[in-house]
Amino acid sequence: MRPDSCIRVFAITCHQLVLAGLNALLTNHPGNFLWLGGHPPTTTSLFRELERQHPKIVILDDASLSILPTLSTHLAEHHVELILLTQSDELKGLEAQIQQGVLGIVHVSEPLGSILGALHAVSQQHLWVPARLRERLLTKAFSSVAQKSDKNSSRISELSTKEKELIRLIVHHPEAKALALGEWLGIQESTLRNRLSRIYQKLHLHGRAALVMFAQQYHLD
Question: Total structural domains in the chain?
Fold first, then answer.
């Protein structure tokens, strides 16, 4: 399989055992993965390495969570998805990390195949969480809908007609490149990116996957 057709996977961790395990899993797996290696969570050189490697998916571990707010913004701008490899079962923390842009969560106690499942799901911009946490997360999400509804309705009211048009287009074409979206709307790619950034700011979202889920939930599609 050609490298440019593979799912490019990069890890952020300071643990050599994590890197060795991911390396063994992804280099020996016959699927369409390209293992790019890893980097410790030191922001001085990390973002240069991300720019150089151009990953499709980044795997982050618990020890690197301190950089999540900065990292998620950077990855959202480059349409890179994020998976958390965690030892935690704490619902509130995991929910907060999803809100910050984490699309996949894999618990370290799960079989290695769970990482492959998460990679496949997240590459298609689908949420992936451990089975034993899925029901708890859904229950928590449903119980908080009423509380969040008024706040999100207020944020939606701040969207312009053009911003809503862009959201609908992204919902129907979630994997379309910015250049193609701009051509469909008759605007420059730079204008589209600026408009998309304003949408993220207004709705307090990180990344396309979160925007698509939000739009479907609030019938912006």
Answer: 2
Give the total residue count for the chain: 221
Which pLDDT score, from 0 to 100, does residue 152 have?
A: 76
CATH (domain of 201) = 1.10.10.10
Q: Is 142 within a domain?
A: no
DSSP assignment string, 160-216: -HHHHHHHHHHHHSTT--HHHHHHHHTS-HHHHHHHHHHHHHHHT--SHHHHHHHHH
How does pLDDT run across 140-192, given as a tens digit for each residue?
A: 655 555 555 667 777 888 899 999 999 999 988 887 888 888 899 999 989 99
Strands (DSSP E) contained in the chain are 7-12, 33-39, 57-61, 81-86, 104-107
Q: How many angstroms separate the CA atoms of 166 and 160, rounded?
A: 10
Q: Is residue 153 part of a domain?
A: no
- Tell me the chain's radius of gyration from C-alpha atoms: 18
116 lies in the same domain as 183: no
Q: Which two tokens stand for residue 67?
A: 């950089």
Q: Which residue has the tokens 């939606």?
A: 156
Domain with 163, as residue range(s), is: 158-217
CA–CA separation, 75 vs 50, rounded Å? 9
**Cα separation of 221 and 210, whole Å?**
13
Decide: pTM greater than 0.85.
no
Q: Looking at the structure, tell me whether residues 18 and 80 fall in a common domain.
A: yes
